[in-house]
Amino acid sequence: MQNGKILIAENQGVYVLKFMGDVRLTLCSTIDALLKRIFCQGCLKSVVIDLTETEGIDSTALGLLAKIAVSTKGQISQKPTIISTREDITRILISMGFEHYFLMVHEPIELNQPLTEAPILDECVESIRQKVIDAHRVLMGLNPHNKEEFAPVVFALESCQPNITSH
């Protein structure tokens, strides 16, 4: 699997996020920063998430995708769109309940928009830990199965005390 990266484009309030390669925890700060940028613009009309070149995606990235659906509810007239042509990725999305929150498209769509690669952001361990907790909390809110599945993860992460060194 190739390392993950995210490409982004925007045109008149329509945002396209293309996730490529292995999308994991290491991209959570990048994804979170992109979401903040999208939702702070004020002219949001639609969000399209292209997973056609995604080889793998972890629960943290899925939680951040779920955050898009939760955040756009009431802001835009239609559900955000996920394009997923890979059966394994689609199966994961459905198992998490994404079909209730996103318009799911299973055929590639021609996007006539130039995409630019989002810079990979790095943050301190504590900040990343909090983003992981928040992402899993969003997943837990989608349905009872997710709540049961991810409650132990959230509990374990919340129980971890950050390393504090005194000088």
From TrEMBL:
The STAS domain extends over: 4-128
Q: Which GO terms describe its molecular function?
A: anti-sigma factor antagonist activity
Q: Organism's domain of life?
A: Bacteria
Write down a Pfam family by its short name: STAS
Show the Gene3D superfamilies listed in the entry: STAS domain
Q: Which InterPro entries match?
A: STAS_dom (IPR002645), STAS_dom_sf (IPR036513), UCP029548_STAS-type (IPR014557)
- PANTHER family documented for this protein: ANTI-SIGMA FACTOR ANTAGONIST TM_1081-RELATED, ANTI-SIGMA FACTOR ANTAGONIST TM_1081-RELATED-RELATED
Q: What is this protein called?
A: STAS domain-containing protein
- Species, as recorded: Oceanospirillum multiglobuliferum
